[in-house]
Each structure stands twice: as structure tokens, then as C-alpha cells.
Amino acid sequence: MVHGVDLHGGQARWYRNRWVRSPEASAHLGASPVPHEDGGWYPGSGNTNVFAHAGRILAVTEGSLPYELTGDLDTVATRNFGGPLPGGINAHPKFDPSTGEMHVMSYGFDNPALRYHVIDPAGELASTVDIDLPAPVMLHDMGLTASTVVLFDLPVLFDLELALQGVSLPFRWRPDNGARVGLLPRTGTASDVLWIDVEPCFVYHPLNAFDDGDRVTIDLVVHDHAFADGGEPLSNRPRLERWTIDPQARKVLTETIDDRGTEFPRADERLTGRRHRYGYTIGMSSSRDLGALGDDPRTAVRKHDLVSGTTVEVDLGAGRIASEMVFVPTDSAAGEDDGWLMGYVYDAARDASDLVIIDAHDFGRPVATVHLPARVPQGFHGNWIPDSTLA
């Protein structure tokens, strides 16, 4: 299901939710299936991310094709960008603000285990690089700089036995498989990937990456493990780190930015692939673990100044659980933190959710709150989609 709020002229005009019309959802609703283009491992439910490209709103689950949605959130069809996309795409495309291209990965259960796709500004598949790996790994996200794609070959492996048992996320933690990060030139081929070993860990979400001379710097949330201890996909205290990848020395230098439990990193996407100063994450208030909700659940929105090395946070209050926050600039020429953070916050006292808006520059209590009539489940990812980006 996809949820949306329409903002216009300083007012919230509507809130609505709609089923993404996967075959399963269509059958449940007694409706005819929507047209399906060729591609993907399976149809998917469109439940992981929603974004816009080439004038279309797209909802995606990794391993499947994205579903095109109307501005009213009705489902049109799946799209393969002119294909083929045999593995679909993963949930986190990167959009180059200079070229208008969409860069995205897919992963599979045999070789080529990874595919790197570039979708042009018109929404057509422009190129694909097939990459073999020693084992089938989960690759939820990637990094992108002006020159380089950052790949992760980390020890969360597809497990056929779990898949045959019907487990929805059939992955296991296998640290003996090793861990490494790869640098692929954006104009290169699979033979150009430079792999560098790192300590076993898992990364769901980078914040941003950029070129720094001959090195690549990437800020990202690092989990000590994932899908360990009975299959739990998260570790209790993921931390925000900066990795400086040195291809000449074949080393990765790590620096902890914030060691408190945190996730869902975001930045000003006008700076995707370029040096950034600010980043935003969601975490537990004070220093509690992500798994330590207990009887007093509460979350904080954090702003990280990566130049001064400081972090400030807004505690959203008891019983209020935030989803991912998205940065929205005041206009196209605005400064890096001149804008707002927007996201859904579940309020246990109302058993419903709010759309919360925080001034990203004068970081403090929300400047506006839209009380929604329903609970928005603690989902995954969303985005601000201005009308001007749609066809």
C-alpha cells in the first residue's frame, strides 16, 4: 500500500492510501490485473520505495519491476524502461542531478549476481553492466559519485533452503563469506571493478558519496550483522560511519560519526554524488538501542553537521515513532539546509499518524503538523514529488 499527502499553497489538500495493484492485491480486491511488462524475478508488491523519474511516479520492491502510479496513487502498469530487466531493480535508485540519469542495481541468485543499470532522463534503459560474484548476496542500496559506483559484497547471502520453506526474506548471515566494497567506474565494465576487503558487516543505506581526489568518501549506516540470531534483519545499534576508500592503498579508512542506534539516512539530493555537509537520520532518543522500545517508544530526528562534527536532535516525544524523513529545499537555488524535513510520525496516543514538517536550518520542534485520519504503518521509504517533475 502507498500513502500520500498532497500539499498546495500551504495547505494539505488530501491524504489517501491505495493498494499497489500487484497480482496478489488485484486478486484480493477482485479487480483485473494491471498490464505487466517483461522482467523481474517476481511481480513484487511495490512496498519498499516510491519515487519519480521521467515524469512517472514509481513504486518498487527489489527484485521486481516498478509499478507506475498516477498522481492520485492509482496503479497503471509495471515498467521495464524498455528492458530487458531480468532481475528487476533494487529499492534505491540514485539520481544524478547533473545528467538527469537514474542509476540503479539489481541482484540475483546466480551469476551475474549484480547488474548495474543506467536509465536515461527519458526513462529508457541506456546501459547495463553484468557483474559476477562468488556467492549470491543481498544488495539493498549503492553509492554514486560523479565518477564511480560504490558496490557492496557483504555477507548476507541468499539461502535456497529458506526460500523453499516459504520464508519471505530468505537470507542468512555468513561472515565466513568475507566482506568487500567495490569501485566501478561509471563508464567501466565488470573487469574494471576494484574490490577492497572490509570487516564483516552489513549496509542497508548509504547517506551519500563523493569523489575526494583519488579517493571515494561515503557516509553510511553500518550494522554489525544482519539476518543473524534467528533471522532478525537488523542489529540493535547500527551506527553512522564515514568510509574513505583509497584505491591506491586498497584500504578503507573508517570513522564513526554517531554510534547511537540510527537508520534511514538522507541528504539533500541535489548533492547526490557531490560533497555534502549535512545528513539526517532517525534514531532512538538519547542513546538507546533501536531494539529497546519497551513500554515507552520514542524516536528522534537527527541532523549531522559533517564539517563541524556536531549532531543535534529533535525528540518527537513519548509514544511517537518516526519513519524516514525527506529533505525538501525551499527552492532550486536554496542552500544545503535551507528547507524542510518531512515524514510520517505514528502517534500511539491517537493510534494514527501525522505528517510532520521540521525546519532543516533552524532545527527544532516541528513547524507544522498534519494530523492524518489513519495510521501509516512503519514502512520503508518515501519521497517528495513536486508536480513539476510529473508528465
Automatic annotation (TrEMBL):
UniProt entry tagged with the keyword Nucleus: no
Enzyme Commission number: 1.13.11.-
Database matches in InterPro entries: Carotenoid_Oase
Class of enzymatic activity (EC top level): oxidoreductase
Keyword Iron attached: yes
Keywords carried by this UniProt record: Iron, Metal-binding, Oxidoreductase
GO molecular function term, any single one: carotenoid dioxygenase activity
Required co-factors: Fe(2+)
GO biological process, one term: carotene catabolic process
Family label: Belongs to the carotenoid oxygenase family.
Protein name per UniProt: Putative Carotenoid cleavage oxygenase
Organism the protein comes from: metagenome
